[in-house]
Design goal:
alpha+beta; Nucleotidyltransferase, domain 5; five-stranded mixed β-sheet; about 25% strand
């Protein structure tokens, strides 16, 4: 008897250092998942945990659940600077992502995965190795290009006033591990069209933690807590407001204002982004520079920092790039995953790679 062919589920995955986002289509229709944005964290039980402490006495917890039970877990982050750092942990995490998309294991999974701009071949090979036995087909594509595809509105391509982000744009994807920038000019980007800097959300977190530690050495903050404070109060320039938080030092409550520390930490991204934009503009045809400058798009989790796009724009204008216009689209977090699933739907069957 011939075995029935499984349904193919085509998915787009933005596997991030801090947060992973995924989208899935089956038979051309979107598969709705309860949660498509998941912190990229795996928690393994600490030695000696009593029965009944962890949900279902699980041997692994993921994402928000791992954060919620972090006092009883050893937390691990499978990625660093946007690429795989712990293969075993990454496979555990990707198994969890697959189980969210296809709980019953009824489908073949054909996945387009994002990678940092100009990721080296060894890192891409390592990512493919992590999906062996989990995904049936895979493609790895630069994240900024996927973001441009995610932002593209196909229904408006015939509108005379519509600016197609895949034709003339400069995408700045600010993650936790890396800030990736890419010229998108109507074709698949070459290595010269991309730059990647290892200064992103994790660098902001590290600076914030260092500044708090120097100012209040008796405070002990976990990596998770620092990230949560950054995400809650992140801002640059005049967008910043008071940021008073209640923390414990030596077991006693203390209220501190971290506004200036958060602002100074977030602003380390501005010169990095401005430098990357200027580097890529030097590689453009002079006839396209103005069009690209007028369509600088900030996305990724870091683009949620209040005032960041405005500060980058003003920095560029102060340096003579008076046409610079920077913006952050409303659904900045999901753009890479949106673009990845679009490509997954349009890639020919013979273009997919079998992970091995």
């Amino acid at each position: 008897m011939t075995q029935a062919t499984k349904t193919v589920m085509r998915v787009g995955i933005d596997l991030g250092t801090n947060t992973t986002v995924f989208q899935a289509n089956r038979n051309g229709e979107r598969v709705r998942c309860e949660q498509d944005v998941v912190p990229t964290i795996v928690g393994y039980p600490k030695a000696g945990i009593l029965p009944g402490i962890l949900p279902h006495d699980a041997d692994r917890l993921f994402g928000d659940e791992a954060v919620n039970y972090r006092l009883h877990l050893n937390l691990k982050w499978p990625l660093r600077e946007g690429t795989v750092d712990d293969t075993s942990c990454c496979r555990d995490f990707l198994w969890h992502i697959r189980s969210r998309m296809d709980p019953e294991g009824e489908c073949e999974i054909w996945a387009v995965c994002g990678a940092p701009a100009n990721a080296v071949a060894e890192k891409i090979k390592l990512m493919r190795a992590c999906v062996v036995g989990l995904f049936d087909r895979v493609l790895v594509i630069p994240e900024p290009f996927l973001a441009a595809m995610g932002l593209r509105e196909e229904a408006r391509l015939s509108d005379s006033g519509y600016i197609d982000p895949t034709r003339h744009s400069l995408i700045v994807d600010i993650g936790a591990g890396t800030t990736d920038m890419c010229l998108v000019q109507g074709y698949y980007p070459t290595p010269d069209d991309q730059v990647c800097y290892p200064v992103a959300g994790d660098a902001v977190d590290k600076m914030l933690a260092d500044r708090i530690r120097r100012r209040w050495p008796d405070l002990t903050l976990s990596r998770v807590t620092v990230t949560q404070l950054k995400e809650r109060y992140s801002c640059t320039g005049s967008a910043c407001r008071e940021a008073k938080v209640r923390l414990f030092a030596d077991g006693k409550p203390r209220v501190i204002d971290i506004a200036d520390m958060v602002r100074e930490s977030c602003e380390i991204l501005v010169p990095v982004i401005a430098d990357g934009i200027k580097t890529l503009l030097k590689r453009c045809d002079s006839d396209s520079v103005v069009s690209i400058l007028q369509n600088v798009i900030l996305c990724g989790g870091g683009s949620a920092i209040q005032g960041l796009s405005e500060m980058v724009q003003q920095t560029l204008r102060n340096e003579g790039y008076e046409d610079a216009t920077c913006r952050t689209p409303p659904d900045y977090r999901r753009l890479v995953a949106f673009g990845a699933v679009k490509i997954a739907e349009n890639v020919r069957d013979d273009q997919w790679q079998i992970p091995m």
